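User: Some background: our group keeps a shared notebook of sequences we're curious about, and every so often someone picks one and asks for a predicted structure to add to the entry. Today it's my turn. The entry only has the sequence so far, pasted here. Could you supply the structure so I can complete it?
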Amino acid sequence: MARLIRDGGITVLDSDLTLSNGLAWSVDGRQMFSVDTLSQRIFVRYSSATTTRKPVGSDRATTSRMPRGTTLVRRTA
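Assistant: Of course. Here's the predicted structure to add to the notebook entry:
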């Protein structure tokens, strides 16, 4: 995964993805979620530190199901 900078440069964010299969942003734009299907991982990055990713939930899926794509649902009160 790479990020295009305004001056035309490119920053590599991830070089270890196996099958990048989905991007989504939170409603407020502060979080970016990415899916790596074959490694069974979902990551989140925060807009203030987009180069640092953290796994969402457990580090790997505990079932044989693999994450495919992304869908975010906004919860209302």
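Suggested note for the entry: The chain has no helices and six strands. The chain has a mean pLDDT of 77.
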